[in-house]
Amino acid sequence: MVTKIDSKKSRLKRRARVRSKIYGTAERPRLAVFRSANHIYAQFINDDTGMTLASASSLDKGFEGSGANKEGARKVGLAAAEAAKKAGITEVVFDRGGFVYHGRIAELAEGAREGGLKF
Asked: What pTM was computed for the model?
């Protein structure tokens, strides 16, 4: 009998493995990325206090375009970098959240770098 692999369960296992090695501090917060079918989200998290310092997503009011493609992901990366600058963040640790560093995830990272973040 052929068993189907649960992709969500596999991603959560990868996410836990990645998170065991990545930790955000006040000086260098974690840039956590989540990708759904239609949107993409980015948060800057201080794991010492468990607080979100800044965020950006394709659901924000001023966002033009779609979060379901690479162009939208790059725009979210630029918006995330802008939000980080307002919060006084220049360096981050990138947390891909168990997703493959390819496509929308890579474009968001490139947009954030283009916006001035270092990671």
From this structure: 0.92
